[in-house]
Design brief:
The complex is a heterodimer of chains A (about 350) and B (about 280).
Chain A lengths: L11 H4 L13 H24 L4 H25 L4 H35 L2 H5 L17 H32 L4 H11 L4 H13 L8 H26 L2 H9 L4 H12 L1 H15 L4 H6 L18 H9 L4 H29 L6
Chain B lengths: L2 H4 L4 H18 L2 E12 L2 E7 L2 E3 L3 E5 L6 H7 L10 E9 L2 E2 L7 H7 E4 L11 H12 L6 H11 L3 H4 L12 H13 L5 E5 L7 H14 L4 E5 L3 H7 L2 E6 L7 E7 H6 L4 H7 L5
Parallel strand pairs in B: 4-9, 4-10, 7-8, 8-9
Antiparallel strand pairs in B: 1-2, 1-3, 1-5, 5-6, 10-11
Helix pairs in contact in B: 5-8, 6-8
The chains are: A mainly alpha (about 350), B alpha/beta (about 280).
Chain lengths: ~350, ~280
């Protein structure tokens, strides 16, 4: 620009006529044709094979549709944008393929739980317990009420123990930064590989067989806590690590002690992440069956006292019923699985709601 | 050219003049803070050597120099934040009101309460409201001060932010713009009534308008408290500082103060060739 230019005010009226557009979204007719062909030709071939041959359906999808679609995408990409975009096409098709594959697996698991679980579902099923019910009793009598209470009590006890311990461990690692940090981290990592049955066996041999505890909700809660602790500690450590160092020095520069820096600045800044750590911990244990078989046994009554007697939870209820030779019992197991999923979903939604609240009250 | 006549100035002369200037200053204004031969190490690497600067009460001192010369490291020794870095070491004395802040019986928490700090990057506490941030120093340090509303209004006014936020004191601090956040953390530092305020490049991330506001704030505050500011912006040093110290580190050697004195002297009549080159933007 060799001369200074000034905005011409008289153009305001004509500029007001401009409408928002997306020129990058406009496609030529040949582009559209090629893309449509690249999508429909493989789909048509595979649909034909699906109906008129006996090739196993999963084999057809993986060994037939995926390579066909890959080839079509590569041809279309080369025709439209040149050789360099062939690799783009491969990556996009593989990424979409992998996503669809995992979605199909997840949705079919979900679908079978929902369809079969709904057969058992009724108010009686949700709120009644298993007293006076035998595996052959028809649906409509008895339910998982006692097991829901059991799961809530056991998971509640383990969360009460493991969440504070796990968060404190994470605070030791990221905030206190003592000499033992490498060992603590190694130990926590090693603990997350402990098989759940070992946690159950540990409580059984150390606390139950020694006579210190009954097989009860509390014993089961302790076994769950062993499994929950490493998950909570590692996730909380990750989120505390994300809190910017400037916030810590900022608080210290205001004359704060280290304890207040952690409690009033660092932990609140990582609040959402710490709640997530607790949820992940609960999600880690809520379906574990093996520790319960060793530490909680089963009970057909609704048990509220966590120390007194054996107690049933949803995983053990499923385990008991799914192995019965009666169709109604198996349906009850599906119903219990659906109930467990609903409980986890409610838990996740609630915590998301709480954690999305900002600082203003 | 002015450069030629300083080439011949001998080191002894410079030191003598510095002593002269220092003695004049001593006669007029009491010294609030003073460092004596501060040297700093990170692990085995010496990054700063023999820094002796006196900070007169209610004055503004600018620390200038190219990146990596140890200005920020130096300023963090003044409120004992340096020691938080693993492997940090230090020699020399930092005197605050005549006594060494590194003496074994001194609690760093008390020192940081008297000697506040504003950082390069605005760091409001994201979990707190605007009002909560201003008062956070009181809560964190356990300091008792009544009439919180007055403190909020006063400090936000001194930081030049009151008019922009007075209607939304309970909004999240993270909703403010970068410049507003920086003025918020200045207000936060003022709420605990510090006697000295350290500022580590407080305007480096700000637009010219916010920078100007903060500079006005600094001039205003210096009527009450002592301010030490690290800056890369030489015009800023000229605008706000009574005194200036020029830091330099060459070829991996530890940084040291090449020249210090009244800002008008450092910029208008420097005695060292390197200072002259630096303040005229010839390197750095």
């Amino acid at each position: 620009m060799s001369t200074t230019q000034v905005f011409d005010e008289s153009r305001v009226a004509s500029l007001a006529e401009q409408r928002p557009q997306a020129p990058w979204g406009t496609r030529t007719a040949s582009f559209r044709t090629i893309v449509i062909l690249a999508v429909f030709i493989p789909a048509a071939i595979v649909t034909g094979l699906w109906w008129y041959t006996d090739i196993a359906k999963p084999v057809l999808m993986v060994a037939g549709y995926l390579p066909l679609q890959l080839a079509a995408a590569i041809v279309a990409a080369v025709a439209l944008r040149g050789k360099k975009s062939a690799f783009d096409a491969v990556i996009i098709v593989l990424a979409i393929g992998a996503t669809v594959f995992s979605l199909v697996v997840l949705v079919s698991v979900l679908w079978s739980i929902v369809t079969k679980g709904l057969e058992a579902m009724s108010t009686a099923f949700l709120f009644q317990n298993n007293e006076y019910i035998s595996p052959s009793t028809p649906l409509g009598y008895g339910g998982v009420g006692h097991a829901v209470v059991g799961t809530v009590v056991i998971v509640g006890i383990s969360a009460l123990i493991a969440v504070p311990l796990g968060v404190m461990t994470a605070i030791y690692i990221t905030e206190v930064r003592g000499r033992a940090v490498p060992y603590v981290r190694f130990f926590v990592q090693a603990m997350s590989g402990v098989p759940s049955v070992v946690a159950g066996l540990f409580i059984l041999t150390v606390l139950i067989l020694s006579g210190a505890l009954n097989q009860s909700a509390f014993a089961a809660g302790l076994a769950y806590a062993i499994l929950m602790l490493p998950t909570v500690a590692r996730t909380a450590e990750e989120v505390l690590r994300l809190v910017p160092e400037e916030l810590r020095t900022g608080a210290l520069a205001l004359g704060s002690t280290r304890a207040k820096t952690v409690l009033r600045v660092v932990v609140p800044a990582a609040k959402t992440g710490i709640i997530t750590a607790a949820i992940l911990g609960v999600a880690r244990v809520v379906g574990e069956t093996a520790p319960l078989l060793l530490t909680a046994l089963k009970n057909d009554k609704t048990v509220l006292n966590p120390f007194a007697e054996p107690i049933s939870a949803l995983p053990t209820y499923i385990f008991d019923n799914v192995a019965q030779p009666y169709p109604d019992a198996v349906i009850r197991a599906w119903g219990a699985a659906l109930t467990l999923m609903i409980i986890v979903a409610i838990l996740f939604t609630l915590t998301r709601l709480f954690s999305s609240r900002g600082p203003s009250k | 050219m002015a450069t030629a006549e300083y080439d011949d100035v001998r080191i002894d002369d410079v030191q003598e003049l510095e002593r002269e200037i220092a003695s004049q200053r001593d006669a007029n204004v009491p010294i609030e803070m003073e460092t004596r031969d501060i040297s700093v190490w990170f692990a085995k690497r010496k990054v700063l050597e023999g820094v002796s600067i006196a900070f007169p009460k209610q004055s503004v001192t600018a620390l200038i120099g190219p990146s990596g010369c140890g200005k920020s490291t130096f300023i963090r020794t003044l409120n004992r934040l340096h020691e938080l870095i693993p492997g940090a070491a230090l020699a020399g004395e930092v005197l605050y009101e005549g006594s060494d802040i590194y003496a074994p019986e001194v609690d760093p928490v008390h020192i940081r309460l008297k000697i506040g700090m504003v950082f390069q990057k605005p760091n409001p506490f994201p979990s707190m409201t605007i009002r909560g941030n201003v008062l956070s120093g009181l809560k964190l340090s356990g300091m008792k001060r009544s009439n919180h509303d007055d403190i909020v209004e006063q400090t936000l006014t001194s930081a030049g932010l009151w008019n922009e936020v007075k209607d939304r004191l309970n909004a999240a601090a993270g909703d403010l713009s970068g410049g507003q956040q920086q003025r918020l953390v200045i207000a936060r530092a003022l709420a605990v009534n510090p006697h000295v305020l350290l500022m580590d490049e407080p305007c480096s991330a700000l637009d010219p308008g916010s920078t100007l506001k903060i500079e006005e704030t600094i001039r205003e505050l210096s009527k009450e408290i002592t301010i030490i500011i690290v800056t890369h912006n030489m015009q800023q040093a000229v605008r706000v500082a009574d005194n200036t110290a020029f830091f330099l580190a060459t070829d991996g050697n530890p940084g040291h103060v090449v020249e210090q004195g009244p800002t008008t002297e450092i910029f208008g009549n420097p005695r060292d060739q390197r200072t002259l080159d630096y303040v005229n933007g010839r390197f750095g």
